[in-house]
Amino acid sequence: MAFRPADWPRRLRSQEWYGGTSRDNIYHRGWLKNQGYPHDLFDGRPVIGILNTWSDLTPCNGHLRELAEKVKAGIWEAGGLPLEVPVFSASENTFRPTAMMYRNLAAMAVEETMRAQPIDGAVLMVGCDKTTPSLIMGAASTDIPSIVVTGGPMLNGWFRGERVGSGTALWQMSEDIKAGKMSQEDFLEAEQAMSRSTGTCNTMGTASTMASMAEALGMALSGNAAIPAVDARRRVMAQISGRRIVQMVKDDLKPSDVLTRAAFENAIRCNGAIGGSTNAVVHLLAIAGRCGVDITLDDWDRLGRDVPTIVNLMPSGKYLMEEFFYAGGLPVVLKRLGEAGMLHKDALTVSGGAIWDEVKDAVNWNEDVIRPADKALTASGGIAVLRGNLAPEGAVLKPSAASPHLLRHRGRAVVFEDIDDYKAKIADDTLDIDETCVMVLKNCGPKGYPGMSEVGNMGLPPKVLKKGITDMVRVSDARMSGTAYGTVVLHTAPEAAVGGPLAVVRDGDMIELDVEARRLTLDIPDDELLRRLGDWTAREEAPQSGYAKLFHDHVEGADTGADFDFLRGCRGRDVPKDSH
Length: 580
Ligand code: FES
Known about the structure:
It comes from Thalassococcus profundi. The chain is α/β, with parallel strands linked by helices. It has 20 helices and 14 strands.
């Protein structure tokens, strides 16, 4: 794609605040001068907002203030004026009921922060799971030039000679405790080994997936996703991204130039190749909704179906992000996709050039970490989109994280009405359940939880684990952590809380999963299903006030990205009227 830079110099939007001699100009400029900025910095140069999700309560992004100093250095070098701006930081490991409930709020806050202030371009400093999509969503809705800088993954964790993958090891060890294979003391000792350095989860969980998605979409410079948080090259990346955003403003290279249908198709295929998180489905659908790009669940299935998973990282594989970086990182994967005819090579990136030019010379330094196609972890690594009378608007499953022998399975439903019901029953040895059953969890979707929690990979009953069984088919309207694994059907839509068919599944019903045929079927007669749906009533009253009400009244289904209905689309960058 040939990008046509805009004429330069020209008057930027920040000059509406700073460029002139009116009372209002002096008001805006004069107050900023209390920080010691010389008058000539307001001469029409690009004002760059460094939108920073640093927070002591978002430990995965805890180093982003330090990294922002390198971004600032790059902006100064390129002749811009850097201004660091804290923005809503939805931490995965602290927000309750789930950070996902606040992704849209964060996106809304970022959008208004950008539009309402003298920002000509933005550096989106992100890392922890929801921080990446929320800032890209906000930037897409303003269409102000923006570039993503992620904080990078933590170094490998090690415990007694084994890799400890963020999240993945936690799920595994907690199952081992229930199965009597690990002591609580060892579990506490392993805790110390999980997070060796600053940075995001070191598995191909949601944070690493979304960093990869940002790069595959073209919103980050090539190579950004995998550089460890503490590697000096992460700081170099921050500095050159700071330089780059200044030129992007001069060229008026906007999110809408980058986030095209071709970019989303590249990202979806890339997700299959890296064995990325199912959370990418809801986030990319939501971002596409902001851009007016018509990407659907069916595109996920169609585009990912023939993509082999070649990145051998937990939770699908063996290694961690540090090793992915040493092997060559995402550019190698994108090069492979290009060679296989699975990449829109001319898709524009924030570099100002085509994505193929960024990756065509990438070298794979470790063919066990980034495998050749004939040694792929899974030949069909994309996200499988299932439909049927149990999921008329779709459900998803990640084949690379599932057990091959369960991809076609028929079993008796054991139903949990919500997560509390699950917790109350699961350890009860009198629960009528064995490994052939299908565990069904309801009321964990966007409205039901609320926020669509990552509980879809519900742990197996201890009495099944003690038999040495490690996987069962599970079906829910919840999400699953990107670090988790199992034969887990997620995002079932419509969700139970709005009366989707999941709501009327009963103990003892037979459920059939056929991933190859993309089918999820509740095996009861049609008239019985209709009768049950007709008798269904909502379980709880909707919230009456506060953000919970806004969320409940406006969140859309998982099948379209769970954004708010009133936030779809791009509202542009026009300056609001001055109030002074
Ligand atoms: Fe923040 Fe995993 S919990 S990146």
